[in-house]
Design a protein that fits this description.
The structure holds two protein chains of two kinds. Chain A is mainly β. Helices cover 5% and strands 41% of the residues of chain A. The longest helix of chain A has 8 residues. By secondary structure, chain B is mostly beta strands. A four-stranded antiparallel β-sheet of chain B has the order 1-2-3-4, with no helix packed on it. The N and C termini of chain B lie far apart (56 Å).
């Protein structure tokens, strides 16, 4: 089993736009970012809920992951935004993740999810491409200038 | 010398025990007076493991998850 791609969690995105009206607000800083190892195999069609199976956590990075309110450098907010960028595309972006003094083993991927919701609904999964570990150090994710994810609505 | 299976090598590499694999860029890091304090190992994905004496940091360069509306 393994992470091979990044992606959005389809079932939740359907529930956002259909009559389920899943209450997702991507600007919330109460959402969390959690890590997984490569034993996990995401199914972007059927995975809905965050859980701790195959989670990577440790000193400085608790189970469930930090909130986006505290995951930027110095424990500050990543201040997530949803904007049009470039023209015709929806971009979800935030400040880089930088959590100091962590000890984590074999993190392979990150998942952002709506922790305040009862369903802890998964939003996006980001595959790192390889396993990474920290020892009493900073775990950082530098987002591309084009955002965490972008949806081209005018292809 | 038997260094183990590929999985063992990957584990050793992920904690900075072995410094270089094909495709990695290793940069020695020095302090202000030229003493070596560690190394930065950047892999082919562009992700960097910063190895120091008592700590190890990681910097992931995340690619944008690009989604296209299917026509």
């Amino acid at each position: 089993m393994a992470w091979t791609v990044s992606g959005l969690y389809v079932a939740n995105w359907i529930d956002i736009v259909d009559n389920t009206q899943l209450a997702i607000d991507l600007t919330l800083t109460t959402y969390k970012i959690a890590l997984q190892n490569n034993t996990a195999t995401p199914n972007f069609s059927t995975d809905v809920t965050w859980n701790s199976t195959n989670e990577v956590s440790g000193t400085g990075w608790a189970s469930g992951g930090p909130t986006l309110a505290t995951a930027a450098a110095g424990g500050t907010s990543t201040a997530p935004t949803v904007t049009e960028s470039p023209t015709g595309s929806l971009m979800y972006d935030m400040a880089d993740i930088s959590v100091a003094t962590t000890t984590l083993t074999n993190a392979r991927a990150a998942r952002i999810y709506a922790d305040p919701l009862a369903g802890k609904n998964l939003i996006v999964g980001i595959n790192f491409g390889a396993d990474y570990s920290t020892v009493a150090g900073t775990f950082a994710i530098v987002w591309a200038a084009t955002g965490v994810f972008a949806i081209d609505l005018t292809p | 010398m038997d260094v183990g299976t590929p999985i063992d090598l990957e584990k050793m590499r992920s904690i900075g025990v072995i410094g270089k694999r094909s495709g990695d860029t290793v940069t020695q890091v020095y302090d202000g007076i030229g003493r070596p304090i560690g190394k930065d190992v950047t892999d082919e994905l562009g992700n960097t493991v910063h190895v120091r004496d008592e700590r190890q940091d990681v910097t992931i360069q995340a690619s944008t998850v690009n989604v296209k509306v299917v026509q």
